[in-house]
Every structure is written in C-alpha cells, then in structure tokens.
Amino acid sequence: MKRPKVAFFDFSCCEGCQLQVANIGETLLDVLDLIDVVEFREVMSEKWDKALDVAIVEGSITNQHAAERIQQIRDRSKVLIAYGSCATIGGVNGMKNEFELDEIGKYVYNADYRFFPAEKTRAIYQVVNVDYFVNGCPVYPPEFIEVLKAVLQGIPYYVPDYAVCVQCKLNENVCMYDRGVTCLGPVTRAGCNSWCINNGNICYGCRGMVSNPNEKGAKDVLARHNIQMEMILNKMNMYNKCRELVQGGHEDD
Amino acid sequence: MTKKDVNIKVEYLTRVEGHGNIVVNVKDGKLDTCRLDVVEAPRFFEGLLRGRSVFEAQHITSRICGICSCGHTLASIQAAEDALGVVPSAQTIKLRKLLLHFETLDSHILHIYLLAAPDLLGVKSFVPLIETHNKVVRRALRLKKTCNDVCDILVGRHVHPISAIVGGFTKLPKETDLDDMLNKLTGMLPDIEATVELAAKLKFPEFERDTEYVALVNYTDEYPFLTGSIGSTDGVRMDKIDYRKATNEFVVPHSSAKHTKLSRDSYAVGSLARFNLNYDKLHPKAKEIAVAIGMKPKCINPYLNTAAQLLEVVHCLEDSIAIVKDLKHTGIYYDEEIVVGLNEQSKVPVKAGNGVGAVEVPRGILFHNYELDGKGTILNANCIIPTNQNLNNIEHDMKKLVPEILDRNEEEITLALEMLVRAYDPCISCSTHFLDVRYVNR
C-alpha cells in the first residue's frame, strides 16, 4: 500500500497537541511506517506545497491571513482533521471574543496595537469543512491513534456524544459536585477517559458540549448545590465561547 | 571585505516552536537590514485574563505554551500565591521543584535531539536520522517518553498539567508512584550518559559576542530554578517584584512579541545565562562534563546554549533522583491534598493584592504578574516570556554574525542564522507568543 502523504499545520495555539505526537514515544516509529509525513514545521525543515492525503490542523483562525491559508490547505487535502480544542471548538482563544478587539489589542500592545490586526477567533469548522475531529486540550493520545486508524481505513470516527460523567463513573471517581465544587463533566463530550477528574481536578469543558445536553438534569444539579447559572456559563466560555458564532464566523443572534 | 549583495528571507522558520521569519539584506558588502520578525498571530492572553478568577489563571496560562506548560503553571501559581499571601508547604515546594525538573529535562531533550542535532549532523530533520541514526532516534524518543511518563505520574500529564494548582496539589503521588518515578529516572541514566558522549562529538559553530546574561540568583547552594531574585552578569541584583525595571519592554513593528533590554542594548536568558551566573551550583557530575568539553563561565558563544542545556539535563536528572529519594524517606503527607476546584469551598483565603511569579523555565526566566481585587478576580495581568527577552539579543547576534560570514554563500549564511536562532530554543507561541528567516529582495 502506498503510504498516504500527511502534513501537520498550526494556526493560533500553543502547539502542545503537536507535542503530544512526540510524546507517544517509540510507537511513533510504527505510525511513521504507515504514513509519509511530508511537512511538520515544529520538528521538520522539509516543506510540501502539493496535494495531500491528510492534513492535520492545530489551532484557531484569528486573522485574515490564517483564513486564506486554511482555505488553501483545504483545497489541496483529501481529508482534513481538526486537531485539539483550538481547532475543533476555538478553545481558550475564544475567550478573546468576549472583548472588543480594539480594546484588548490596546491593553496588550498599547498604542502600537494597530501593528497587529486581529479578528474574532473561529474554530476550523467555522471556516472550512472538517472531516474528523480530535477534541481536547490537549488531545488524548489514545483517541488520536483511534482517529488515525479510522482515517487510514477510510471509515468515519464518531466522537462520543455522551457526557464525561459516563467515563468518570466507570473510573469510580467521587463526583466533584459531591466534593463541593462545580464541574463541566455533565455537559461535556466524553472521550478523554475523564482525565482531569481522575487527577483530582474538575472538567473545564475542553472537548466541547454534547449535542443534546440534559438541561433539566443540569439545572436540578445546580439548584441542589445552590450554584448560579452565570457561574457555569462563565466557566463554559473558557473553551466554548466560539459556539456563539455561526459558520462563516458572524455573530449568531 | 567582499562588496557583495546578500538577500535572505526565511519564512516560517522550522524546528522552532511558533512562527517567525529571518530577514537579512546586505548591499555592497554592507549590512542594511537584519531582523527577526515574529509573525505569530497575537493571542492576547494578558487581556483575556481580566475578569477571570485567579484560581483559573494557572489553567488558562499553561495554555500559552504546550512545551513549557508546566513552567507557566508554576510561574502562575507563584504569582497568585504571592498576591494572596499563601505560603506553600515544604512538601509542595519539593513536588513543584520536581515538576520543573521534569519539564526542563523534557524540553531540553526535545531541543537537543529533535530540533538542534539535525543541523549539527547536516540533515533537515530527525526523519532522515531514522534511517541513518536509528539508535539515536530511538533513544531520543525513549527519553522523551520517560519524561512524559514521570509527569503523568506526578501531575496527570506533561502538556497542561492537571493537579498542580494554587495552594498545592489536587492529587499526591502514592508510595508506589514514588517507586515508579525513581525507577524511570534511574533508568534514564545510561541513555543520558550516551547523550553526553554524542554531544561531546558534535561541533558547534564558533562565534562570540559579549552580552549581558540574566537569570535568577539566590544566596543558597541551590542552582535556582523555582525561586530567586533577578541577577545579571553586569552585576544587577533586584527583587522579582521589580521585574519591569529588569525587562524594560518595548514594542517593535516587525514583531508581535515585545523586546526587552537591561544594562546594555540587549540581554540573554536561558540555559547559558543560568550557567554563566550559577555555574558553581551545578551538580558535580554536570560540572565534570563542562570541564571535559571545555566550557566555563562567562561563555559568550550563543550556539553553546545547547551545550548548557546538556549540562542542565545531567543536573536536573541527578537532582530529581535526590528529591524523589528524599520524599520516599520523609513520606507523603496526604492531608495536604486539596480539593479547591475554583476555590468554591474558600480553602484558600482571598484578598486583594499584587503578586509576581519569577521562575527559570527551560528557555529562561519567566515572569507572571497579577493584580487582584478583594474577590480574587484578576484586574490586571502581565506575562514576560523568555523568548521575548532573547529576541533583541538574537538580532544583535545576527548583526555581528552576518558581516563575519559574508564570504560564505547565501545558503550557508541562512543555515548559520537559522542555527543561531534555534540555539536559543525560541518558543514563539509563548512570546506572542515566533520564527521565519526572510531575506528582503530589492
């Protein structure tokens, strides 16, 4: 079998999800037997500007140059994978959308802010078609391998559309609500094996929301623990602010 | 001097973290333009921290950078605790030192093997090395994986650590975890020995420029990583609270990352700066290697930052082993485990304040500064990243280097410049968070 040509591209992000690839260890060499990585700027000087079988894209779209670049990548790629929260849902870059762009620019760069034009943060699917989603901040390596297997076989990968709680219960964690703190597990897509809660922290919603959250159940839980909706929404906006944009990136009202 | 024209324009410099360009223009043998453009789209982290709880700052700021997310975590926690008046326990400090060592090991190994070594071996990336130097690549990936594994044990994962928060840790290592970490760390020793042998054979370019080096300093015997005050090779000593007087940030139009300077036109931070300021405090094994490869302070060849990283790898590994052994000896106090989430149980007392975190992360000294209101909400935030502090110094290096190597062809000049920039192990996502070489054509 001819090895598919694969390239990694990054937009606005911390590049931690790319780093997760290097963190697989020697297994990486087995993966490299199956695919032909033709471009991966963070660790390779080789470049590729021709047709691609698979483009793995990290980061969010935050300016016009990026929007043009992702369109070009889409145009020459058979399969496009949005890789990591910044790419799949906008992630922490989305928090910027809570501010007026000029105001936040001035705050960081003072009067020189005009050197750095910015637009509202958009997730990749809000700009171009996405074939596969690998959620998470950072991505969960076992899930990435699963997605890669699906891509190589040409079959779809379905991101779990049930709450993190399902996996959390199986891991026998004590519910964070019962420990007296709020957690976004009930409304967040599973697939991470409840990584953060296993380590004593709460879910921050980095994998995006389930498509049909149990709103009534969530409201009951909030009422029982006397938690304000505003607080939950504020927490949700840490990763999920971009959900308010519709495709093309305009305000949804 | 040759009266030639050189136009170099490297867009999207590779094997660095983030997006930057190198632009060099020589007209009639005279250097006209020499810049390091940072073209990373700004992400406005400082701006978007405003209005968030200080207990969220660690989670958010660790996302500034995937490579040094543990470093950002620790600087953020230190700034928050400084503002709130929280004093970490002795156990928490030991575990944080361990976490920082793991990150330094991981980051330095990634840089030495995957980012810097290909240049020194004359290839474009580690990929051709899979064929030619298979054992070396396997060793690199094995070392990288082990660093990652010990981080998993300690804080849940290396990229964006989970359990390290303001006040301490949400999960403390079990006794078996300590054994596991100790086994993995001691298991790294033979591979690190092989790394030292390999590195001793590499030939680093010869280039010198005297500059000011800045790093944390202290008055103890400990090589400072987690805490200290600000020191420089020009004799500056100041408390971390005065960090703005040390960095003196300014904006340049060609870079979305700000520049800095102190006593001279530019200064450098990172492994070489720490080596130059704190050489005496390195672990004896690291010092032995320094003597063997002929490195002594004050070393002013920026390419040797990679060699200084190697010395720190040896230091951090030895010190990590010592810390874990110490923790095994004292035992872990599990009653220190905290469930604060976003501090909804008010476990950590909140008050208005202004706090600074200054931590030596792999690429140099990192500052976080938060100003809080009485509810612990962030009013103002400022982060000064090591790569920002190095950008100005790199440009000054380039300006001295280019006239010295004008007899070479354009390709060789480009490579020398790319290697120079990579030696600083820049982290451009962080600094705007950076690198692409562009030679302007006219």
Description:
Chain A has 253 residues and is an alpha/beta fold. Chain A has two domains: 5-153, 3-Layer(aba) Sandwich (Rossmann fold), CATH 3.40.50; 164-241, no CATH class. Chain A is built from ten helices and five strands, in the order βααββαβααβααααα. Chain B has 442 residues and is α+β, with helices and mostly antiparallel strands. Chain B has a domain at 64-203 and 320-361: Cytochrome-c3 Hydrogenase, chain B (Orthogonal Bundle). Chain B contains 14 helices and 13 strands. In chain B, strands 1, 2, 3 and 13 form a four-stranded mixed sheet that branches. Chain B has a four-stranded mixed sheet with strand order 8-7-6-9. In chain B, a hairpin with a 2-residue loop joins strand 2 (19-27) and strand 3. The longest helix of chain B has 31 residues, at 90-120. Chain B is globular and about 70 Å long. Chains A and B meet through helix 1, helix 2, helix 5 and helix 8 of A and helix 1, helix 2, helix 4, helix 5 and helix 6 of B.
